[in-house]
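Bug #77: duplicate submission created two jobs. Keeping one. Sequence:
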Amino acid sequence: MNAPGHEKFDVVVVGGTPGGIAAAVSAARSGHRVLLVEYHQHIGGMTTSGLGKSDVENRSLIGGLFKEFTRRVLDHYVNTYGPDTDHVRQCNNGYYAEPSVAEAVFEEMVREQPTLTVIKGWRLATAHVRESRLHSIEIIERSTGDQRTLTGEVFVDATYEGDLYAAAGGEFRLGRESRNEFDEPHAGVVYFDYQNRVFLPGTTGEGDDRLPAYTYRLCLTTNRKNAFELTSPPPEYDRRTYLGYFDDLAAGRLSGPKVFKPGRGYNPAHFDTLVRALSISDIPNGKVDANINPRPLGFPFPEENVGYVLGDDAARRRIAERHRHLTLGLLWFLQQDEQIPIEQRRMARQYHLPLDEFADNGHFPFQLYVREGRRLVGEYTLTEHDITRSGNDRSVVHHTDTIAIGEFPIDSFPCRKRQPGDTLVLEGYLGMLDSITRPYEIPCRIMIPKRIDGLIVPVAASTTHVAFSSIRMEPTWMAMGQAAGVAAHLAIKQQVSPRQISTPELQQQLLQQGQVLQH
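Kept job's structure:
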């Protein structure tokens, strides 16, 4: 019997990220009553909040629900505009999408499941554990303060921050391991020459509590009829915040890369201009995905996320607002600062916030790009060695419980602002280590807390900082989320904890659903 006021579901997923959506849809398709709880008024996390291009290097290695998502995106552009159009070509077989299109596809995927309920604008308040099993949670409506108590057979923590397992008392890591802890070459305090692939003076390998910089990922339009143009700088604007970019320009740090690779946001017209502060990729409908280039030493975002992960809702809102102002300030600076050559300002003025995106948020993305939060301490810890196969033996690290394949290069944003003596790279930046990263197997155990039953963690999973900088991509998280949904189904079906499910049965069902488990 449920206690009065308790709402019971088979599976409760906290976090409407792509990984959370995949977990919820997967569990619902297995016949379970599922609740998906999202903090914002929109589902989809970064994929619907400015990250317009899916970060996948080898498309053959991620299937399942992510592949279904890309197929639906492609179908949208074909059905809306016709097969032989620029819109279809720019969607890149469904891997590139406008935020509104990505959100519509996710909404369609959840709406098709009659046993799946989605609630938006609610955040986690507390978690209740009985005899080492997560039994129930309390959630609070962010605008009204209303509360609800939810019980479930299985819970899924799909938040970027790892909020649910932390509230349940789960062990986690926050910050960077030392080089000595797992013998990872790129761990800890590091200065790494991303062009020549060598360590620089100042590298100590010491661990600390620093995290990679957070930013916003912008969707911008080049269509003036669809443009929401900035007419004034944002609150807190101080042009001095961005003056370091002039030094970057003079020193050649805003030039093009040594190796030009498609899909990395390289636009030759922007090389050796201040617009290179952004990494811009075309997406359909006259829009672009604009990342903020972490390579210049003037990059102002490191350390601005201090206090975010462990902060309460008010602290997180305040830090997110600070990042919003920094981001809009950078756009204003590039477009308006009179010290910038006029031709470069004109180039920057090609790009504006789009009127038809994020209309309820000032045409600005709703989700802060939380590149790394807590990391679970689970039954297995994925390390740099799993990803790079370092040492004499470069063979694949095989796991008996593989549930997905990771394939994206190690890629961590800087952890500190420019320090005295910095002349080449910001501390902590590990830029696309594709020369050493190899496709790798992801074991189910990194989603399983050591001491808490009834909980699966497909997003803020059990890895080191270095390994997390590879696994932290939305397509990979969707694969892990799908596995979490199937694992939750099997735990309920077999009446066991998720750590006790039949791994062969889990893998068999994933293969039947199009998941890729080997390469």
